[in-house]
């Protein structure tokens, strides 16, 4: 490997083991300054593990890391931050009852005489970054009141506030709407124009083609290849990602729905502020069909799901499963009617994080 200051990041011979399992095996990565560099791989390929090593959350068992041509012992995130690296995790690291500004400056506060927090000066600095990069967000807004897309902008601002020149984005589009994805790509290009370097972890081919200059492919913990995005097709990227030919178009048989098994009639649900976020919604789901509900984040999806699963009260209307009304009962009753939920936020609602996989799997029927 030729070590050069032309590269923001170079990782050579990276090996990471967890017990007897080798998560990364002799991994290589070369990221040129001022580029958007995608790391492509299936779930479990080792993408996030590699970036967690770069950010100092994990330590490599073997290998070396170079930042701007200089070898760095990435012992912890403090070393990464001082080296100009920032990371936006797939699951955001925000204090929900703090404001945007309070989250951005947390741990890196600006103070005046006698150590008093100078929030006015901090907000001025935040507003400068907002205007410079197109990261439109209200510094006084409370995190729990803003959309997921806005929360992601806060995470990016947190990294920039701490002086990041190299920004790692872990699956940044996983929870965004199409419009928010377009906005994020525009923000990424604004950052590149200012001389930043971006590493994006993803398995979404269209977004790599739309956003990235270069792509490194990872498969089962091993480095496969690095290509210029403009020189390859989505199909070629997919083939390298999985190791065999992939058919990107799915042949779907015509639906043949049967009788109605689930029905909502004239449903009205209020949010925590007593504002109606679901207004007179009606829909039917027939046996053997998939029904999609589309909408921008914050337009009642959360309240609808919570009403169906009896995590919140219905103001009016009915929810019926196989002829039995289930609204305003209990989550246990919903489960007994064979309704299951995969939540948007798995960490908060879907899983008990300090339980094992087996314990989480049986928790609904534990005896």
Structure description:
The longest helix is centred in the middle third of the chain and has 16 residues, at 178-193. The protein starts with 6 loop residues before the first strand and ends in a 5-residue tail after the last helix. 29% of the residues lie in helices and 26% in strands. It has 2 domains: 7-242, Rossmann fold; 259-365, Rossmann fold (3-Layer(aba) Sandwich). The protein is globular. It has helices at residues 47-54, 77-82, 100-105, 119-133, 148-161, 178-193, 205-211, 234-242, 301-308, 331-336, 346-350, 357-362, and strands spanning 7-18, 21-32, 36-40, 62-67, 70-71, 85-88, 166-170, 197-202, 214-219, 222-228, 260-270, 276-286, 316-321, 324-325. The mean pLDDT is 90.
């Amino acid at each position: 490997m030729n070590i050069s200051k032309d590269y923001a990041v170079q990782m050579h011979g990276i090996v990471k083991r967890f017990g007897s399992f080798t998560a990364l095996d002799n991994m290589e990565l070369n990221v040129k300054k001022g580029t958007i560099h995608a790391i492509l791989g299936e779930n479990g390929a080792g993408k996030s593990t590699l970036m967690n090593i770069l950010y100092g959350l994990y330590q490599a068992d073997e290998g070396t890391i170079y930042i701007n041509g200089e070898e760095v012992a990435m012992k912890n995130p403090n070393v990464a931050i001082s080296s100009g690296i920032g990371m936006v995790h797939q699951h955001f690291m925000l204090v929900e009852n703090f404001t945007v500004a309070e989250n951005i400056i947390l741990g890196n506060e600006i103070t005046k005489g006698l150590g008093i927090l100078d929030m006015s000066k901090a907000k001025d600095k935040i507003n400068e970054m907002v205007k410079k990069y197109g990261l439109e967000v209200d510094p006084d807004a409370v995190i729990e009141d803003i959309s997921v897309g806005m929360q992601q902008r806060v995470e990016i601002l947190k990294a920039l506030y701490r002086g990041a020149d190299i920004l790692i984005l872990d699956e940044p589009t996983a929870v965004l709407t199409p419009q928010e994805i377009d906005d994020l790509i525009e923000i990424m290009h604004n950052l590149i124009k200012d001389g930043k370097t971006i590493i994006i972890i993803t398995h979404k081919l269209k977004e790599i083609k739309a956003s990235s200059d270069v792509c490194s492919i990872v498969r089962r913990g091993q480095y496969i290849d690095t290509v210029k995005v403009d020189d390859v097709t989505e199909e070629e990227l997919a083939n390298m990602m999985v190791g065999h030919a992939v058919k990107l178009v799915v042949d779907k048989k015509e639906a043949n729905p049967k009788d109605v098994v689930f029905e909502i009639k004239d449903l009205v649900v209020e949010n925590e502020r007593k504002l109606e976020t679901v207004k007179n919604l009606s829909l039917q789901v027939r046996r053997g069909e998939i029904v999609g509900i589309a909408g921008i984040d914050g337009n009642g999806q959360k309240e609808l799901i919570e009403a169906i699963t009896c995590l919140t009260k219905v103001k009016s209307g009915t929810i019926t499963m196989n002829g039995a009304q289930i609204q305003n009962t209990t989550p246990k009753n919903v489960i007994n009617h064979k309704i299951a939920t995969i939540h948007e936020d798995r960490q908060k609602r879907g899983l008990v994080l300090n339980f094992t996989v087996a314990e989480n799997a049986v928790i609904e029927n534990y005896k």
